[in-house]
Amino acid sequence: MKTIKVLASKPYNVYIGAGLLDHAGELLRPVLRGDAAMAVTDDAVGPLYLERLKAALSSAGLRVFEHVIPRGEASKNAENYLRLLSAMAECGLTRADTVVALGGGVVGDLAGFAAATYMRGVGFVQIPTTLLAAVDASVGGKTAIDLPQGKNLAGAFYQPDAVVCDVSLLETLPEPVFRDGMAEVIKYAFIAETPLLERLKSPVSAQLEEIVALCVSIKRDIVCADERESGARKLLNFGHTVGHAIEKCSGYAVPHGRAVAAGMAVITRAAVHAGLCPPEVARALEELLIKYNLPADTHFSARELAAAALADKKRSGDGISLVLPVSLGQCVIREMPVDALEAFIAPALGVPAKGGESL
Ligand SMILES: NC(=O)c1ccc[n+]([C@@H]2O[C@H](COP(=O)([O-])OP(=O)(O)OC[C@H]3O[C@@H](n4cnc5c(N)ncnc54)[C@H](O)[C@@H]3O)[C@@H](O)[C@H]2O)c1
User: Fold this and answer.
1) Would you call 199 a catalytic residue per the annotation?
2) 5 belongs to the catalytic site
3) How many domains does one find in the chain?
């Protein structure tokens, strides 16, 4: 097992290893204050792992309640948020008790927002079950629900008390969901100089613990430097400006990970074209995307993408923060007027790498 200490405003440990679910009780006991826990999961993860979680928490002396939501992004809404708060109140959860999120980013974000707001904040633990949640969503303290007007529009920064990442739970992930998570893993390899890029050249299944730990360490370092995303944390958005635009243009038919993959490739080629990045970086990125069956281009035009980016909540005023690679494992944040985006990305579209897929 690997333990990564996150020294955020609230310090906590991320435990990463195979088979940790059955030891969640012992691992979490030191951070649990009350004697009750609300286990939150979805209807795909629940049948696979909820009983094991309940047994592990019960063995640590906790009364365990459960709340199951339907799987999928559509569940991350205000109605399910209020239902969860009501369930917590009905079970008599006190301020000392804990919400335990067992699932992907949807469950983690919703349960985290409920934990942040029930009685102005109760205990919160993340047990990620998707690759994306393991390397990204479960660490860093962003919690949210979607509104009809857009994704993640209501939320709070609320760090967990602990994260228990049992990598063996990822074995039951549907292949496309795992592949989407790989886009975020590849993102880390290009925003920080670590052994990650080298490791990704070999099959990931045999080294999941190491790879998740490397990604979490990178996220930890960035989040600790800038918990509320006023500067360095924006690096985590590499590929996301164009990625979000692709998602939006497709009416959210394109999954997030695949959109981010294409977004990273487009923005990197644009940086090469602008003379800010050596072509080898774009080549290395495209090779990895192809290796992991992720797209490296999109059929949407620069005009369509720029129009969609205008509506992005991460935009501030007339400016947009772009994350641009400048060398292998190093990106910079560049502010750009929104109306300059179209011309910046135009030369990078419709030129996928040989063998690369276009969305
Ligand atoms: N808080 C953050 O910092 C942060 C960061 C990135 C993304 N997010 C959010 O995360 C969400 C996406 O998360 P996601 O990609 O994990 O999607 P998800 O939670 O919807 O999970 C994807 C699918 O996989 C299923 N599943 C999960 N674990 C499984 C397992 N072990 N075995 C079998 N099936 C399993 C789920 O039931 C679901 O159908 C989005 O809402 C996004 O906004 C949050």
Assistant:
1) no
2) no
3) 2
